[in-house]
Structures are given as structure tokens and as C-alpha cells.
Design brief:
By secondary structure, the chain is mainly β. The protein is about 0% helix and about 65% strand. It is built from no helices and 11 strands. The strands form 2 sheets. Strands 2, 4, 5, 6, 9, 10 and 11 form a 7-stranded mixed beta sheet that branches. A 4-stranded antiparallel beta sheet has the order 1-3-8-7, with no helix packed on it. The chain is elongated. The termini are far apart.
Length: about 120
């Protein structure tokens, strides 16, 4: 089993910055990709950004140029640097990771989420 724990959320004014972190632990053999999703109040969860173990990144159009995803493979941790925050960025941010455990079974895990609130 692979557990993800997010941190770094909070309240910030529009135009401000936050950095989210997500650490993976457990019976990890590999982490092939990690990512962040955003769920605004009353809305469905949507992709924000992903990063592969090789460093290839993918971003939602709404965050390109403002958010940067990165990872530290040695620490099994993924980060999301969020700059130029807007009120519409408010919501819960979930970390996700997929790969294989030591038994070579695949996993796709989610964190519990961290709240980000951007005031106008």
C-alpha cells in the first residue's frame, strides 16, 4: 500500500504564492508518475499538472505559466509551486501517484487533500 500526505495549503491573497508538497510512503517499488488535481467547491476534480519519473511535465491550460510541478525522486516527493494565484484556484488540491509496489502489483493512490483559499 502506498500513502500520500499533502501539506502547504492555506489562505492567500490574489496574486500571492503557495507551495504544496506531497510525500509518498509505503511498499514503493516505483513511482512512474505523480500529479496534482484541483476540486473547486461544487465541481468535479480536474487535472492541474503531472510529472513522470523522467521529469516530463503536463499542465492544464488554466495554470500554464503560473504553476510549476517538480519532484524529488530520492524523497518520493512531488511539489506544486503556485504563483499568481487567482480566486478561481480556490479548492482542495489532491496529490496522486502511480507505479508498482514490491510485489510488482500496480497502484494508483490519492492523498487526503489540502485546502487552498485565494481571497480577492
Amino acid at each position: 500500500q502506498v500513502h500520500l500526505v499533502e501539506s502547504g495549503g492555506g489562505l492567500v491573497q490574489a496574486g500571492g504564492s503557495l507551495r504544496l508538497s506531497c510525500a509518498a510512503s509505503g511498499s514503493i517499488f516505483s513511482i512512474d508518475a505523480m500529479g496534482w488535481y484541483h476540486q473547486a467547491p461544487g465541481m468535479q476534480r480536474e487535472l492541474v499538472a503531472t510529472i513522470t519519473n523522467g521529469g516530463r511535465t503536463n499542465y492544464a491550460d488554466s495554470v500554464k505559466g503560473r504553476f510549476t510541478i517538480s519532484r524529488d525522486n530520492a524523497k518520493n516527493t512531488v511539489y506544486l509551486q503556485m504563483n499568481g494565484l487567482k480566486p478561481e484556484d480556490t479548492g482542495v488540491y489532491y496529490c496522486t501517484a502511480e507505479g508498482t509496489v514490491y510485489s510488482k502489483s500496480p497502484y494508483h493512490s490519492w492523498g487526503q487533500g489540502t485546502q487552498v483559499t485565494v481571497s480577492s
